[in-house]
Recover the amino acids of this structure.
């Protein structure tokens, strides 16, 4: 029977030790680099936390960490094709309206820098969205009296409910561009809603409809344990 | 001599529990793998997209692209060596044409020749597992998921009683059950709960 000689064993031991040290060193360097990046991003957060908004509230809501770019947060994608885009603005309105992509481009477009806050804990500051104000669309369709809520409808039955006053805020958009570029697929191309004052799940991607209703209709996440209102400054994450 | 009464047969329920536990366990393997993998994937949704591998890269063709939209698209596809018929070609702006492909979009700046290539590649198994886990399909899967949940409850309960401990149900098993139950209770108490 072949038993390893003592010298061979010693060499094997050394090799194992050397390989262990090599792996441990590379692991430490990697962890250090990741830690460094994390710290850099945290600097971003701590700097932003020192700022206040014009309404006096802190720029970064509690429990949020600032990132440099929007993260793709999933959802069942709709068609990214602008030719397939059709937005129905309807419900309790005088003149229901359907807009295609060209119609959206022909409408009065604005470009706004807004901060967005995801319920999972990240925030992006100064995201530059371009699109049409929901308030302008509401004026075009003539919202009837007694309407209290607006339902934003995405692809595959996704919905998000928003109070009328918040949906008609001047920074609420039907957006088709982000930071000077067309929306990318994971962010709801070709068109998404943007409602900066609420957690970002309210900003339905692959937008297909805006419905004005008298009675509230809790949406996809609101019926799955998430807060019905979703104010980031009150940390209204869950029901 | 009077006949001796037949001895009363004891009800042997533990073997039945063990058999139930074993067979339910076999049945649950497939669904447990799906729910566990998907659970881990969806739990970390803030770190990654559990359904798609999203990518974005920029190509520079180095010159302006002139002509009809279809001609622009053909030139871009040729330059990037893409062998796929576009689903659509759409001009979204004076200087921007979108070439829509199955899983990607090419955003072409016709004035500079810059092409932003972005898309989503589905994570095949995880996407299906997440679809089932989140019950996005609804319909009959609701019943399958309910049956699985009852199956898990049965597994848990049969698991407690299927092996006799030296001190009945008050021995090691009881300690472990209490420890397991303490985890969610402590978490709710310490975190402040909902």
């Amino acid at each position: 029977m072949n038993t390893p000689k003592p010298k061979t064993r010693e060499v094997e031991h050394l090799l194992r030790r050397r390989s262990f040290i090599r792996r441990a060193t590379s692991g430490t360097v990697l962890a250090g680099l990741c830690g460094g990046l994390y710290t850099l991003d945290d600097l971003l957060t701590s700097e932003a936390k020192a700022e206040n908004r014009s309404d006096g509230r802190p720029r970064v809501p509690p429990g949020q960490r600032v990132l440099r770019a929007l993260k793709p947060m999933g959802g069942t994608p709709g068609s990214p094709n602008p030719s397939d885009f059709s937005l129905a603005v309807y419900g309790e309105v005088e003149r229901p309206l359907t807009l295609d992509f060209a119609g959206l481009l022909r409408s009065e477009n604005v470009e706004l820098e807004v901060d967005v806050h995801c319920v999972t804990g990240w925030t992006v500051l100064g995201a530059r969205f371009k699109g049409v104000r929901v308030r302008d669309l509401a004026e075009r369709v003539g919202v009837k009296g007694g309407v209290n809520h607006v339902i934003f409808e995405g692809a595959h039955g996704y919905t998000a409910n928003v109070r009328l006053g918040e949906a008609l805020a001047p920074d609420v958009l039907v957006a088709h561009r982000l930071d000077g570029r067309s929306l990318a697929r994971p962010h709801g191309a070709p068109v998404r809603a943007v409602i900066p004052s609420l957690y970002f799940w309210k900003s339905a991607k692959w937008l297909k409809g805006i419905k004005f209703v008298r009675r509230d209709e809790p949406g996809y996440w609101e019926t799955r344990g998430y807060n019905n209102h979703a104010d980031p400054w009150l940390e209204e994450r869950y029901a | 001599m009077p006949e001796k009464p037949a001895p009363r047969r004891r009800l042997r329920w533990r073997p039945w529990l063990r058999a139930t536990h074993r067979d339910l366990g076999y049945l649950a393997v497939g669904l447990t793998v799906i729910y566990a993998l998907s659970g881990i994937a969806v739990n970390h949704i803030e770190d990654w997209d559990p359904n798609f591998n999203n990518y974005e890269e920029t190509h520079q063709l180095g010159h302006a692209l002139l002509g009809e939209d279809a001609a622009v698209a053909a030139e871009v596809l040729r330059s990037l060596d893409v062998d796929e018929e576009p689903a659509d070609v759409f001009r979204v702006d004076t200087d921007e044409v979108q070439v829509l492909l199955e899983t990607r979009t090419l955003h072409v700046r016709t004035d500079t020749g810059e092409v932003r290539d972005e898309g989503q590649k589905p994570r095949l198994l995880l996407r299906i597992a997440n679809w089932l886990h989140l019950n996005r399909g609804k319909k009959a899967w609701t019943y399958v998921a309910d049956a699985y949940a009852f199956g898990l409850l049965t597994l848990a309960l049969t698991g407690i009683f299927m092996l006799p401990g030296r001190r009945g149900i008050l021995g090691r098993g009881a300690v472990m059950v209490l420890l397991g139950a303490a985890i969610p209770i402590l978490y709710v108490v310490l975190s402040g709960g909902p």
